[in-house]
Structure formats: C-alpha cells, structure tokens
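Pipeline run #58 for the internal structure catalog. This entry was flagged by the ingest filter as a single-chain record with no existing model, so it goes straight to prediction. Upstream metadata was stripped on purpose; only the residue string is passed forward. Reviewer on rotation: M.T. Logging verbosity set to normal.
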Amino acid sequence: MSVIDDYLKDVEPAQKAALERVRVIVRQTVPDAEEVITYGMPGFKYKKKYLIAFAAFKDHLSVFPAAGPVEALRDELSGFEQTKGSVHFTVEHPVPDELIKELLTIRVNDINDPRAVGY
C-alpha cells in the first residue's frame, strides 16, 4: 500500500474516485513522478521537487500545483474557485483532464528551468 492509498482509504467513495482520477492523470503525464505525502496531503514530487498535491475536504476537493501554474491558467480555470496555489472542484464539477495536464506541464517546465525558484 502506498502513502496515497493510505490517505485515500478514509475518503468518501465519490471523492476518492475523483482524486484517483487526478492520480492517474499525474502518472500518465509525469511517469517519473514519485508519490509522497506533502504538507499532510497526497501528492507527487518530480526530480525531488514539489510537483502537485491533492486533497478532499468537506465541501470540495483541491489540487495544489503551486502558484505559477494556477496564475498561468487563471482564465482557463475561471469556472473554479482558486487560491494562489490551488484549484477547488467538486465531484459534480471536476477540473477537466486537459487542464490538469496543462497545470502539470507548466509545473514540470518550472522544475526543469534552472532559473526557476521556489519549491
């Protein structure tokens, strides 16, 4: 059992399925990413740097791709509540696969850029 499986075992089934979908997208998009618990949430690191995290809350789910990707896709994510580094969604209104892939691509590019700072 992985650290993410351990977290997901206590999540309500519909939310668990929504977060498993995010997990699959991360695995497909960044196959070298490592599953971790980061900031108390399931997530992934890439090249030993923070890539993305996700979590279930009482009234929503969230992905946490860091501030840069959220800012870069602010307009495309306008149908979702956003904070500086997160996107909130629900089981009924998930973030589309392509947007999650774009968030990941931007974050991977940030990690691979030697001039990038942060996580």
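catalog note: The chain has a mean pLDDT of 94.
catalog note: Residues 13-29 form the longest helix (17 residues).
status: ready for reviewer M.T.
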